[in-house]
Amino acid sequence: MNLEALPGRTAAAIYCVICHALPNPTDLDRRTWSEELLPKMRYITGVSAAPTNGYFRDLPRLLAAEYFPKKPLIPPVVFNQIAAYYTQVAPERLPSGESLSIEVGWPLFRPEMAPHRHSPPRTPMVRIDARQGMILASDATSQALDFLDGSGRHLGSLPLGNIAVSLAENGRHWYIGAIGHFFPREEPVGQLIRVNRNTTPLRPETLLSGLPRLAHVAAGDLNGDSREDLVLCAFGNYLGRLSWLEGRADGGFTERVILAEPGCLRCEIRDFNGDGRPDLMVLQAQARESLLLFLNEGDGKFRRQLIYQRPPSWGHSGFELADFNRDGLPDILVTNGDNADFNTSPPKAYHGVRIYLNRGGLKWELAWTAPMHGAYRAVARDFDGDGDLDIAAASFFADYETTPQAGFIYFENNSSAGGREWDFKARTLRQGVTGRWISLDAGDLDGDGDDDLVLGSLIDMPTPVSDQLKGLWREKGPSVLILRNQTK
Question: CA-to-CA distance for 338 and 340, rounded, in angstroms?
């Protein structure tokens, strides 16, 4: 096929990049392009009026927000050319990609299923409180925060009335981000909840309600007034925003919008340019698929800078900062593996775990990639105490039909110090198949000086899983799996 002769190819390079990075036809299979993505884009670009048959949930909210353009962003004849190009060139099936060699079983971690479980397991957040030797785990059914001891036994629960997915803390407070709806909706029922850790009994205090689906909360003093400020990643769905909450003298907050777009997943607060003011690094999904830097210019103003952008199907899911090459500069550990955009989404070869090294001057360079279907969370710690950073990663959209053992992977770092070549050995545990891991945290749970791992399972998603595995998760799978580090 002569791609140069297809007019849609040229048109896509002109029109599609207005909103996002240019997708390659091979990013998705032909059925997904023709039956799911392109029909949806026809409405989003205003080529056709939004249907009233329930195709868009919460359509009245989208119409009230004037989400759909009044005039087509792309001439209809040109849109048809673009659609023809993508459907003609797209493969019938996506390639499986590189196969990762994973060694099953290794003695570094001892797996322990927490005796406290919910049926079915629905645990969108886990946190290790190393000071208390305690696990905090949210449950989407009871909409409560469970407190477990270091062995996973139930100590008590704090009813929230919403689904906790994020927790930021300072010495006195927990700031809890509650998503409202786990599955995509426009209904603004997200909440920001504050809990004073020094009160008995603990009492949740709702600071903000009516938020788009809230994905992450970060805390820090952004304006230098010695009062705690917050950053909210209100992911939403088609509607959402990134904002910061300025702490007031009366203990309240004033919200200031930084980016009036959906899809912001996570924020890290740090002074990236060394000017003494804390900046924001933000990962954005939802078609934008970008890693962004918001440089703090003072007076509550932030200047946006793009670190990188990927195609809309990339499915970014999380990131954290870590110094992999020990040069004192923050590198970036990123996962992309969200695979829930369509009714049926086959595994994608470009899903995985990546390291971007900090090269100075606010520039980061891709240094290492490991393929991992459905990669959702990753943390970097020196788990084995050999002086370099290893990686623990969880997948929420693993290829459960062929490689269910890849739902959890430990990447042991065997790289030479200071070298440019990276050598990570992939390992897993047999118990890694006992849950569908959506949440992951690392910390010294038992106070012995090494970092343990805790995973949270949420088993209900409309993606292919064998009946046998579903039954295992539902009947015996843990809500929380503890991987106890045996180094010390």
Answer: 6
Helical packing angle, 76-89 and 7-15, nearest 10°: 110
Beta bridge partners of 347: none
C-alpha to C-alpha distance for 357 and 324, rounded to whole angstroms: 8
The C-alpha atoms of residue 84 and residue 476 are separated, in whole angstroms, by 48
Tokens of 409: 């992977």
Has residue 5 got a pLDDT over 80? no
Q: Please, are residues 394 and 376 in contact by the beta-carbon 8 Å criterion?
A: yes
Backbone angles phi, psi at 467, to 5 degrees: -60, -35
Cα(397)–Cα(409) distance, rounded to whole angstroms?
13
Q: Which long-range contacts (CB under 8 A, 24 or more apart) does 209-213 make?
A: 211/180, 212/186, 212/188, 212/236, 212/237, 212/239, 212/240, 212/241, 212/262, 213/179, 213/180, 213/181, 213/184, 213/185, 213/237, 213/240
CB 211 within 8 A of CB 162: no
pLDDT of residue 341: 83
Helix/strand number for the chain, H first, E second = 6, 29
Phi, psi of 163 (to 5 degrees): -95, 110
Q: Are 373 and 401 in contact (CB under 8 A)?
A: no
Q: Where are the beta strands (DSSP E) in 271-414?
A: 279-284, 290-298, 301-309, 316-322, 331-336, 352-360, 363-371, 375-381, 390-395, 408-413
The mean pLDDT value for 131-147 works out to 97
Instruction: Convert the pLDDT of each residue in 296-355 to its tens digit.
Output: 999 999 999 999 999 999 999 999 999 999 999 999 999 999 998 877 788 999 999 999
User: Of 433, 444, 426, nearest to 481 (Cα)?
Assistant: 433
Question: In the numeric block, which tokens belong to residue 208?
Answer: 């903000």
Task: Find all residues with CB under 8 Å of 238, minimum gap 6, and list them.
Answer: 56, 62, 67, 186, 262
Cβ atoms within 10 Å of 349's Cβ, excluding its own? 16
Query: Whole-angstrom Cα distance, residue 202 to residue 181?
Result: 24
Q: Rounded to an integer, what distance in angstroms lies between the CA atom of residue 287 and that of residue 284?
A: 8
Q: Say what the pLDDT of residue 6 is.
A: 61
Please state, as a whole number, how many other Cβ atoms lie within 10 Å of the Cβ of residue 172: 12
Query: Alpha helix locations (H) across 67-109?
Result: 76-89
Strands, sheet with 154-159, edge to edge from the N-terminal-most edge strand: 126-129, 134-139, 144-149, 154-159
Cross-strand pairs, 338: none
- 3 pLDDT tier (thresholds 50, 70, 90): very low
Concatenating the DSSP letter of every residue in 220-254 gives: E-SSSSSS-EEEEEE--SSS-EEEEEEEPTTS-EE
Structure tokens of 247?
A: 């702490």
What token pair was written down for 356?
């971007």
